[in-house]
Amino acid sequence: MRDYLNFNSYSFSDEEKRELMDTLDSGWITTGPKTKRFEEDFAKYVRSDHAIGVTSGTAALHLSIVGLGIEQGDEVITTPMTFVATINSILYASAKPVLADIDPDTMNIDPREIRKKITKRTKAIIPVHYAGQPCKMDEILAIAKENNLFVICDAAHAIETEYKGMKIGSMGNAACFSFHPIKNITTGEGGMVTTNESSLADRVRVIRLHGMDKTAWRRYEKGQFRHWDMEYLGFKYNMTDIQASLGIQQLKKIDDFWNKRKEYSDRYDSHFKGIKNIITLPPPGIGSKNAYDLYPIRVKTENLKMTRDEIIDAIQADNIGVGVHFRAVHLLSYYKRYFGAECEAFPNAEYASDRLISLPLYPKMTPGDIDYVADVVKKVVCKNQ
Ligand SMILES: Cc1ncc(COP(=O)(O)O)c(C=O)c1O
Q1: Most buried residue, 86, 220, 314, 328, by most Cβ within 10 Å?
Q2: Bridge-partner residues for 176, per DSSP?
Q3: Are 359 and 330 contacting, i.e. CB atoms less than 8 angstroms apart?
Q4: Is 146 exposed, middle or buried (0-12, 13-18, 19+ CB in 10 A)?
């Protein structure tokens, strides 16, 4: 039997190690010059005016929501097909998450469903660019404009994503990125808020560090002590220079990583083409770019003798790591209790939720690994139809 193939693995080499050592030797390891450099490089990459480095994608979402003034009594529309962080961060701000069903093909939020959910209390829409595919931003931005709503992109999967030639990080009021180790580039843990609005950038910068005024982080530098003020109630979400060291070097490789994942994603697609009970993602629309953060398939269990979880067990038995992105949020225990009897059905999200399996997709894999995974998946599915 082959060695275990991890579901995911990051790619670090000498460049990351050198940058990290340089930071450790510099005498400054928390938010400082490396964070500033990573923010500038990242803003340039996603073509936004501002980027603010934070501790996670979750922190980026929380800070954007609070930074835009969303609070108790406000409603925020988002998708059930996401990681809990999207919805949790709405609750952290004491606002109310309102779910809208997904498009069955891309599994991105369906703009027609968003329209149905707008009330007098709606303040924002959080589209999640699922697996790196762009949401229908023209329609979402039009709905937001008509109804005076903010748009905060959950771009945890979408650093490289483009919609009609525009990078997601430059769309809407803010975009929130994650550098968790299973993301396209990693800083161990980490995140970024990008925005073209200077006032929002200023507010997020202040509330990412307790609400202390802007340059308080420099107070321990030589000759820099001065009294600081606390303007707002903020959080402890500042990115460190240790994280940023990894980010600076990872970002330089992002397009090479993307090329590999695209090649592998296309290779999986050709394996699964014409296989009856496996659904893959549609190709990106014209002018759009998928970040290929994940390779999710849906197994049509209605035609199979096995459940999705039994199929996962069979794939794992052949030494392959897999994931599920995602089980629809409203089906998890906490959110079942939270939405309670009020919770309606989201048929497209529920269909996907019971059938999704994410297959390994990362640059360190070889074409032979992709062929092996695809052959195992086809064998399991075809034997059980
Ligand atoms: C869609 C989505 N949003 C938000 C997050 C949160 O990112 P982090 O883990 O960096 O807090 C994730 C992380 O997996 C995610 O997949």
Answers
A1: 86
A2: 154, 193
A3: no
A4: exposed
Q: pLDDT tens digits, residue range 228-269?
A: 889 889 999 999 999 999 999 999 999 999 999 999 999 999
- pLDDT tens for 107-157 read 999 999 999 999 999 999 999 999 999 999 999 999 999 999 999 999 999
How distant, in Å, are the alpha carbons of 79, 313, 340 from that of 378?
30, 14, 39
- Ligand 1 pocket check for 180: Cβ under 6 Å: yes
String of DSSP letters for 191-231: EEEEES-HHHHHHHHHHTBTTB-TTGGGTTSTT------B-
Residue 290 tokens, joined = 């998928």
DSSP codes, 126-147? E-B-GGGPPP-HHHHHHHHHHH
Give me ligand 1 centre to Cα 64, in Å: 14
Q: Are residues 261 and 351 in the same domain?
A: yes
Nearest-5° angle of CA 190, CA 260, CA 35? 25
Structural domain range at position 238:
14-254
β-pairing, 174-178 vs 150-154, is parallel
Count of Cβ atoms closer than 10 Å to residue 9 Cβ:
15
Active-site positions?
183
DSSP 3-state of 75: strand
CA geometry: angle at 137 spanning 136 and 143, to 5°? 100
Which CATH number covers residue 151?
Answer: 3.40.640.10
Looking at the fold, whether 155 and 291 belong to one and the same domain comes out as no
The helix (run of H) or strand (run of E) holding residue 328 is none
Q: Looking at the 3D structure of the chain, how many domains does it have?
A: 2
Tell me which of 79, 126, 180 to substitute to probe ligand 1's pocket, judged by most ligand atoms within 8 Å of the beta carbon: 180
Q: Is there an atom of ligand 1 within 6 Å of 250 CB?
A: no
- Report helix, strand or coil for 4: coil
Q: What is the identity of the amino acid at 173?
A: N
Contact between 194 and 48 under an 8 Å Cβ cutoff? The reply is: yes
Q: Are residues 234 and 277 in the same domain?
A: no
Amino acid at 295: Y
Residue 290 belongs to what H/E stretch?
Answer: none
